[in-house]
Design brief:
- The structure holds 2 protein chains of 2 kinds.
- By secondary structure, chain A is mostly helical.
- Chain A contains 7 helices and no strands.
- Helices cover 44% and strands 0% of the residues of chain B.
- Classes of the chains: A mainly alpha, B mainly alpha.
- At the A-B interface, α4 and α5 of A face α1 of B.
- Chain B: Its main location: mitochondrion.
- Chain B: Pathway: Energy metabolism; oxidative phosphorylation.
- Chain B: Keywords: Membrane, Mitochondrion, Mitochondrion inner membrane, Oxidoreductase, Transit peptide, Transmembrane, Transmembrane helix.
Chain lengths: 261, 117
């Protein structure tokens, strides 16, 4: 029987990259048809296909690594590089929205009253719910670090406790932010203030939801004994992503909520 | 966890072989590493329950008290042209309400929908 003479993982042919690309096409054209022709069929199809792609692709990676043992040290190293590069690209994504915010707020247009916040805008008090949100995310950074150390230590129950706490804090943040969105006296349609506020915090909130989901999957996997004390990169990638989400919030809080009020 | 004592000598002449010594040393390193791991994760556990979660609690109380101290009235409506922009209808509902529309706090371009709470 032939064996590979190297430590790398030559992946079996898979349909998921194709279905992922098709879902991207369906979602983009779906958004266009929704906005221009009021039909949601393409968008719905694209979203469904995206969810199926993500579930099956990542399920396959778990099968290849945890159950088939393909993730040798060099393979893991490549995955580490990959996650770092991906998070870096996301940092640049957010840099764009911070650029838009500072461009609009450092030299406010005369149409806004020449000041920031613009005339007629009542900004949120940064020391109410936004401060609570900051505490929640910072606390979740502590709990996820606690979780990491318990996994490395091989302590099962504390790992489940700390991971669960982290997920709960993430859900609490999302709930608080949804409430803030509903209670805010300004909307997305309120000029460049509303636009920069809701686009930047909105994309951040989406990333919180993604990060929380990632950590929930880690929690589920840990209950099924997928992680060992020295091989748990799935968890580490989730923790890195979570710290990134936390740091973006800190920048949002300082820039938009605090300085911008 | 490793318990019990180690039999350090081999049967023949009572002296320790190099293999036995290395095994013992490796075991001692592993025991020490495990103890360190437990120490570090306990530190983060303490940080969680003494600093992080009480911090969240304090901020919860603060936010709750500040919210109660708010005036509950609607701010006066001024039909500024740079706010409540409607260049294109929203693709939901009547096209005039934002996604998180709150009738009490969000006036439409021509004013509040409900004039009383």
């Amino acid at each position: 029987m032939a064996h590979q003479a190297h430590a790398y993982h030559m992946v079996d042919p898979s349909p998921w990259p194709l279905t992922g690309a098709i879902s991207a096409l369906l979602m983009t054209s779906g958004l266009a048809t929704w906005w221009h022709y009021k039909t949601t069929t393409l968008l719905f199809l694209g979203t469904t296909l995206l969810l199926l792609t993500m579930f099956q692709w990542w399920r396959d990676i778990i099968r290849e690594s945890t159950f088939q043992g393909h993730h040798s040290t060099p393979v893991q190293k490549g995955l580490r590089y990959g996650m770092v590069l991906f998070i870096t690209s996301e940092v640049f994504f957010f840099i764009g929205f911070f650029w838009a915010f500072y461009h609009s707020s450092l030299a406010p247009a005369i149409e806004l009253g020449g000041l920031w916040p613009p005339t007629g805008i009542t900004p949120l008090d940064p020391f109410e719910v936004p401060l609570l949100n900051t505490a929640v995310l910072l606390a979740s950074g502590v709990t996820v670090t606690w979780a990491h150390h318990t996994i490395m230590e091989g302590a099962r129950k504390p790992a489940l406790q700390s991971l669960t706490l982290t997920v709960l804090l993430g859900l609490y943040f999302t709930a608080l932010q949804a409430m803030e969105y509903y209670e805010a006296p300004f909307t997305l349609a309120d000029g460049v203030y509303g636009c920069t506020f809701f686009v930047a915090t909105g994309f951040h909130g989406l990333h919180v939801i993604i990060g929380t989901t990632f950590l929930m999957v880690c929690l589920l996997r840990h209950t099924h004994y997928h992680f060992t004390s020295n091989h748990h990169f799935g968890f580490e990638a989730g923790a890195w992503y979570w710290h990134f989400v936390d740091v973006v919030w800190l920048f949002l809080y300082i820039s938009i909520y605090w300085w911008g009020s | 966890m490793l318990k019990g004592s180690f039999h350090l000598t081999n049967a023949d002449n009572g002296a320790m072989t190099e293999t036995t010594l290395l095994t013992v040393q490796r075991t001692e390193v592993l025991v020490a590493a495990q103890a360190y791991c437990t120490y570090v994760s306990k530190t983060w556990k303490i940080l969680t329950f003494i600093l992080a979660l009480p911090g969240v609690g304090v901020c919860m109380a603060n936010a709750f008290l500040k919210m109660k101290a708010h005036s509950h009235e609607q701010p006066e409506f001024v039909p500024y042209t740079h706010l409540r922009i409607r260049t294109k209808k929203f693709p939901w509902g009547d096209g005039n309400h934002t996604l998180f529309h709150n009738p009490h706090t969000n006036p439409l371009p021509d004013g509040y929908e409900s004039s009383h709470h």
